[in-house]
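Q: Hi! First time doing this. I have a protein sequence and I read that you can turn it into a structure. Is that right? Here it is:
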Amino acid sequence: MMNVLLVDDEPWVIEGLRTMVNWRNFGFQICGEASSGSEAFSMIQELKPELVLTDINMPVINGLELIERSNQKLARPPKFVILSGYDNFDFALTAMQQRVTEYLLKPFDEEEIEAVLIRLRTKIQEELKAEQSHSRMQFLFTNNLLIRLITGEDNESLKLQAAQALLLQKDSKLRCVVIEASGPSVALVGRVKKYFTQKPDRIFEDSAGRIGVILPDDEFPPCRVHELSLQLYRELEDPSNQPVIVTISGVLQGIGSIRELYLQALELNKCKRCQGKDGVYHYRDVRQGGKSQELAKEKFKELTEIVMAYQTNKIHAAVEAALDSVLEGMLDLKEAMSHVADLEWSLCRRIGDMNGDPDALMRKLHDGHGTIDSFGNYSALKTYVLELCLEAADILARLEAKNENNTIFHVIQYVDREFRSKLQLQDLAKMFHMNTAYLGQLFKKETGKPFNDYLNEKRIEEAKRLLRRTQMKISEIALQVGYPNTDYFIIKFKCLTGVLPSAYKQKTEREPAD
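A: Yes, that's right. Below is the predicted 3D structure, encoded as structure tokens:
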């Protein structure tokens, strides 16, 4: 339906126009009524009707002045039909000069108005069709240029062409707004244009159907962009449909920055979509870079320590803090999963060290939730992490109670912690109030290895790690892992690995990194 606005300072005329014609039969609906020219101009700006029927003789701003003001100030003025009680050639001539479409003399009858509506309906529809076709062609051209830029095509010819077509300077300060909402993309483009009006339009549609718009900073300062984005969000918001997400990039300089601006807004869009949130978000408001990784690493470390201390009452808050650190830093789901995988490994290793069954825990979790790489959003990941931590804390607490009086378990734990220091079986026996021979038997029964073999293997494993990951000298590594005598360390290393420490280091340096 096309909208029509009725303007006359005589209420009976408005009433007659409203009731005399079945407007819907001719493809029109009355969108508003005004009793003065000034009121009518405000309503035209707000309602954007396709057709206005207006009286000429009105106070302050008459009908002809209303038409002149609309033609001068509006990018797309409506069609006007003059209603006049004066059969005066001067009025008609002025009306024609103002490009008035029709001129009706009062009193008019139903047939006259209907004939005018039939003519105008055809004319307006043809013009709308032509305008839509031109607008579509312009959009396709602009869209092609911008898509080439945001997908990484980078050459001076393209930048020059884009600058000319989009009427931008090569060093213009720009920002990008990305809008994701349900519904046909054509309708969404139209709504975006309504708020971010530009000549020419700098709008594009990405491969996922999101609509983007490039905004020059001098035409759209930050406060204005935020205000328009909020208005657009409120218009698009629909609780029954998918969330509406409007994301606003930072400001960068030059046509060549368009890709980076789009990626900023897109990164923020994906983060908020994974959180299941909607609204208007600014890239400047989120933390970026290595600080985000460090914060997430710190929060997951705190979570691990809380679980290993069986502090069940703190687990919910710690899980929230860990996942929030990922979200606030806009780390993607894969990065979040890597932190969760480290958490899994640490907890499973601790359960294994305490003679528990970490595989049973993982089977239970995977049966209930799937593996972490199968999660498609942060909500599912958070649920999984919470259950992992609660289950692990419960298992560890039960294992602690079971092992509390198991002296050999504490001996092994002590060796695992202190293998770098000078350890001897007789010293351990004194420490744990046991017979040396009996402790040696229990140690071998529990670990499957004699004490010295177990100790040497722990030391050599640590030495291998230091050889792979550090630039320490072999003598320094020997001392670090508990061998004051470097020659003895080299003998033990070759005995257990089959190669000298220097050869092992050279071999690992030649191997490609994982």
